[in-house]
Amino acid sequence: MASREPSVLRPVRDVAVVAFGQTATARSTDELSEVEMLMPVLHEVLAATGLRTSDIGFTCSGSSDYLAGRAFSFTMALDGVGAWPPISESHVEMDGAWALYEAWTKLQTGEADTALVYSYGKSSPGSLRDVLTRQLDPYYVAPLWPDSVALAALQAQALIDAGETDEPALAGVALRSRADAAANPHAQLGGDVAQGEYVVRPLRTGDCPPVGDGAAAVILAAGERARELCGRPAWIRGIDHRIEAHGLGVRDLTDSPSTRLAAERAGVFEHPVDTAELHAPFTSQEVVLRKALRLGDDVVVNPSGGALAANPMMAAGLIRLGEAAARIHRGASDRAVAHATSGPCLQQNLVALLEGDAR
Amino acid sequence: MSGVGSSAVLRAPLVVEFPFTRSLGAVQSAFLTGLRERTLLGVRAGDGRVLVPPVEYDPVTAEEIRDLVEVGATGTVTTWAWNHEPRRGQPLGAPFAWVLVRLDGADTALLHALDVPGPDAVRTGMRVRVRWAGERVGAITDIACFEPADGDAPVRAAVPHSGVFDEPVTGIVAAARLDYTYSPGRAQTAYITALSERRTVGERCPSCRKVYVPPRGACPTCGVATAERVEVGPRGTVTTYCVVNIKAKNLDIEVPYVYAHIALDGADLALHARIAGIPYDQVRMGLRVEPVWTEGGRHPDHYRPTGEPDADYDTYKELV
């Protein structure tokens, strides 16, 4: 049982995010294939570090064929890496944050000193709300086709019933996120965005993320290699991911014990953080995550605008890690928590604690 | 595939359909068979809770759980969401509320639809009852939806049930359909557009200078964008081939026939196509071929021999 394990899992090896790149997220990218969309961000992170593909010890990607309806699209995407002579490579059918976790683990083993992590999502060819129903329990839930907004709305109503939030408070989250996104050139939705009509009550248009296509890439490096490649590496002091029961009615939707446990094991509660990049596609989910991560009002939450400003599927979680790291790179943060989620109503959660060297 | 409006990008509808046939575990089988028989079953977990819908393994301990109980067909809404625009496949065609319902005797909640006229008619804590589907097959949709049951008091706690029924359901067919609008991207759009003019146009890698046909927009060796367009062919060389002996569904081609890799003149990657105009057992590596177009076709129907002498192995060995 979990209680026998140490509460904080310390990395055996110092590993840092040394470069981050992302595309602008757009509602449609018809003119680009997935590899054409992805390639610029791969080149961006390689150029930032001066590395070539052949210098990279391990490559790991995250994507899902269901989004664009293209079988084995991740093998086509690999064209953008230049995988010849053969490279050490892996793929997860998940958000790129989990690809980063796999790469971090590989670096922990000492088998590699550098890793390229990328992910992309092209949701525009399909109807995302319907596509996402295919990730649900195929026996009891998927035959009812409950779309992603409907499930988030059930969670939002549970929060309202519990007195944890109300519609004006949710609108406030939307307003703050889009206002912050005005300064983010990669955001899809920024500035003054109307809260709009109900999509599935109690969630309005403004409470939901925009549907968009995008890609992101990160380079990880271990120890001294990280210092060579980056002026101020964003050290991953802890990282963990946890999942909850798949039955929605088994869970307490107003809480996120998986986030709390992952944060505990990542060491988030040992020292105060100044910044949090939370992967909360719906306004109501920020309420849950703030509570689970015990974030006070002094913490800057989602200065990028978060997933409410740009939510490219399979990349938005990796972007949270990248945004937090980039703030450390440029000295805007000293210690940040980054979070990624997967599944309906925050079913699975990854938490990382990032830190910059003292200045 | 066709262009839409003034845009040069190609688009076409793409339908992905899959009827997954799934077998059921013992608990799932009892639950879904029970729905067919208008009996609602749950399973008792290690901590004593009754889980409805029931699962095969304990969500806390992961141990196998088999202790079935019958619960009521009435219950209480634990949360809801108003769906004013039902989508394809959802339980009701008219606006309805999504609800999580804790059935009487259960400790967890079941997701389904609640048939009420509007959002003002639903609240957390309201009493509801199952409305059974007229035709039941052993699926979650045997519950048509829930309906208000304000007068109904909680009926009973969970009572033990054997889970045994005549003719148990052992599997479900989960039909799924997703509709996409496929767009092939810049490089492949250019390739397909040129093909419709009976020209084969690849792209050259700026780094290794190889010409890829069909182009995918990136050089898989160098990982850089290809952009320089290069017309190749129309003639080419068979680098390798196979003899197809099984007739494909919906394909009006007599077997046996030959399917070959063809290195078009000027290309550094072989494409594949059918070979005709020559008996299948006379096709060979090195055979020189050319495309055969049909009226209105957007790509070559097949390739046929040109009558030239066979190519030397050395001229195409890098492309085999």
> Strands of the largest sheet of chain A, in order across it?
3-2-4-7-1-8-12-11-9-10
> Which CATH first-tier class of the largest domain in chain A would you pick?
Alpha Beta
The total beta strand count of chain B reads 20
Please name the CATH topology of the largest domain in chain A.
Peroxisomal Thiolase, Chain A, domain 1
Biggest β-sheet of chain A: count, sense, barrel? 10 strands, mixed
List the helices and strands of chain A in order: EHEHHEHEHHHEEEHEHEHEHEE
Report how far apart the termini of chain A are: 41 Å
- Determine the fraction of residues in helical runs of chain B and give it as a percent range: under 10%
Organism (chain A): Streptomyces alfalfae
Protein name (chain A): Lipid-transfer protein
Domain ChsH2 rubredoxin-like zinc ribbon (chain B): 194-224
GO molecular function, one term (chain B): DNA binding
